[in-house]
Design goal:
Two copies of one chain form a homodimer.
Chain A (H helix, E strand, L loop, with lengths): L1 H4 L2 H12 L2 E2 H5 L6 H13 L3 E6 L2 E6 L2 H10 L10 H10 L1
Antiparallel strand pairs in A: 1-3, 2-3
Chain lengths: 97, 97
């Protein structure tokens, strides 16, 4: 999933889908990129379960799936005390000393 | 930076360094991996500014740098309203409707 997030275009696609679901053609519009290229990026996001695509005839509709982002959030939880001035941070510091 | 985080071993190295700074040899100990292989992973983390390495003679000491993780945290902020039941989420929903 971090792999899927490691590309600037894919992060931009997610940001777009965070506003509303969209068709592949609409997703592609702001990018200087062919439709198949955008579709490939969407496929990477689908494999990472960050995007769901539904196909209705020729129309491919994409929507954001936030489950994996919640996982990133939970993972970050192990590090958050480093930058929030919480009691946890104080405790960790005290332990180190 | 997401690229650097996309590897399980590298995430484990960060988790270890979140406890205390460590020498490369100590970092390598729990992994079934050669010292050069661990060192390569550390180099990827260094390039992503997630780890700082100081060299003292033959001893390479590594410490965690949390700056980039704060960046991930800030980036996630754009999506957090999807899973926290905040007024923001309600507002976004109302807008969509």
């Amino acid at each position: 999933m971090f792999q899927a997030l490691s590309d600037r275009t894919r992060r931009a696609l997610l940001a777009r889908l965070a506003r509303t679901p969209a068709k592949i053609t609409d997703l592609a519009a702001p990018f200087d990129m062919s439709l198949p290229a955008v579709s490939r990026h969407v496929r990477v996001l689908e494999r990472a379960r960050l995007v769901r695509r539904t196909v209705d005839g020729r129309v491919h509709r994409c929507s954001l799936e936030v489950g994996p982002l919640k996982t990133v959030e939970a993972w970050l939880g192990h590090y958050r005390h480093f930058w929030t001035g919480t009691l946890d941070a104080l405790a960790a510091y005290a332990e180190d000393e």
